[in-house]
Structure prediction request, 122 residues.
Amino acid sequence: MGKYDDILAVILGGGRGARLYPLTKERSKPAVPFAGKYRLIDVPISNCINSDIYKIAVLTQFNSVSLHRHINATYHFDRFHMGWVQIWAAEQTFQVTEWYQGTADAVRNSYWKSAQPGQKMC
Prediction:
């Protein structure tokens, strides 16, 4: 791996995309396709991988089934590579009974999923 083994990238990928409505009628904004086989989410994931950041969490909430399918079908590292791209879907628990209320709330409610000793968030 690289010099950034202890960094976790968090990508917010749950946007409703109201301004892109015709394109987001059946999918979230990050799942909107462009240039054939790519999706908008591929840009920040590619930036992370090209920057040697291989632990990537994508926070999702709104209309995200096609986004989940795309990420699961696209991003696989080999057995000798310790990197991953995970989907952290919004969830309701006994402590948190509402969905994400914005960007900061999404990061705050998902922080416990990444809490590992010595790991930095960027």
In short: Helices lie at 21-24, 42-50, 65-74, 103-114. The chain has a mean pLDDT of 79.
